[in-house]
Amino acid sequence: MAVIRGSSGDWEVVIGLEVHAQVISKAKLFSGAATDFGAEPNTQVSPIDAAFPGMLPVINRYCVEQAVKTGLGINAEINLVSVFDRKNYFYADLPAGYQISQYTRPIVGKGKIRLDLADGSTRDIGITRLHLEQDAGKSLHDQHATLTYVDLNRAGVALMEIVSEPDLRSAEEAGAYLRKLRSILRYLGTCDGNMEEGSLRCDCNVSVRRPGAPLGTRCEIKNVNSIRYVMQAIEHEARRQVELLEEGGAVEQETRLFDAGKGITRPMRSKEHAHDYRYFPDPDLLPLRLDANWVEALKRSLPELPDAKKARFIEQYRLSPDDAGVLVAEQASADYFEAVARGRDAKLAANWVMVELYGALNRLGLGIEGSPVSAAGLGELVDLVIDGTVSGRLAKEVFAAMIETGKGAAFLVEERGLKQVTDSGAIESAIAAVLAAQGDKVAEYRAGKEKLFGFFVGQVMKATQGKANPALLNELLRKKLAG
Ligand code: ADP
Ligand code: MG
Description:
Number of helices: 15
Distance between the termini: 62 Å
Helix content: 25-40%
Bound molecules: adenosine-5'-diphosphate, magnesium ion
Largest sheet: 9 strands, mixed
Oligomer: single chain
Number of domains: 3
Radius of gyration: 30 Å
């Protein structure tokens, strides 16, 4: 969808994303209340979160650390001085009547996120800023016929709002951006990235323009909660705008909602109804000052992140960018692969992890952490393939049995008699039996019908239950047929 072809010519789609990422932290941003997901309503609420009069917020140092780590992880400037502002609005799930956020002086400034595109190339997307803010509570409209209930467990939980430049050009790029951002957050341990539980939520700003023209008027689609929905919402919204413009209409700047059931966006509020939040610095909080040495120490403590790991996998293991990208998407898969690859043929290891292991885990609906076969277990099987104990084909059978029974590779090869036959005497006698039974075909082959060779290979394999060493079989068969 890089361009949309309209009846009057091409249109370019322009997208900027605002992501709310819930910070992993035991306590809230300005109170000591717990943050566990799924607790009984209103059991994790301090007087600060409930905005009792006279309560004072105290900044949670760990949440600040998480934001700084995230900033460093997206190659961004860390602002050693930042300011908390009050963003004023009225809503039932916001008892204070304002949200503590950051406006003109966020904790993290400009950065970038590298996209891995489908054709194997990469592209950097600008990050405008990352700021810290409180989450609001939750209004529950479905508990009672005429009443709305309020759950304040989420009120005051720390969020990082991560705003991108309008650099994205298609729904696919937006999807790739969110996958990469989520992967970085998970590597850093600063947000669990779980979109179903709402720990990662996305507002999509979408506009269209003639290629090269100034930016068009944008619409903002609020609170989309899966990558697939983000992509659908953008596709639909861009097409809606193109149709509107081609009919001679104009896009009005407004906030819209995505209806996942229908796959469309619809208006929520127009610019005239946009909030005036009357931001001002929170008088209860001092400007936040960071020690440059502390930031440096955090920088040194960061784990190897997906881009660096990918580059290393390409270099060290000679993997294709695609394969390396798949393996580094999750830290656990990358670690698993490296444990299998260590001291072995890395391409073979990558193949086993990505094809057989991922295939099996997919079928079982399991993540790599829940894999019934450990990296050491898979490594043992790969060793048996490399040293010729079991053929590549039968190794797949062994692997299926490992997944099913949890037993070790060597044990299963022995138990099921799957050892490769490398004894030339045994293979020769199988060949002799097959050729004797297929006299007509042998004659045809010798008369020049050479493609029958594959047929003989198949017959001998069958006679040895697939256990004959393929290279040896080929060699011996060729000799026999020639003689
Ligand atoms: P606001 O403060 O109203 O949310 P910003 O200017 O901060 O507005 O932009 C918010 C988001 O909208 C950013 O991610 C930015 O990249 C994106 N954006 C801004 N202009 C456009 C545009 N014309 N088309 C698409 N996205 C845009
Ligand atoms: Mg906005």
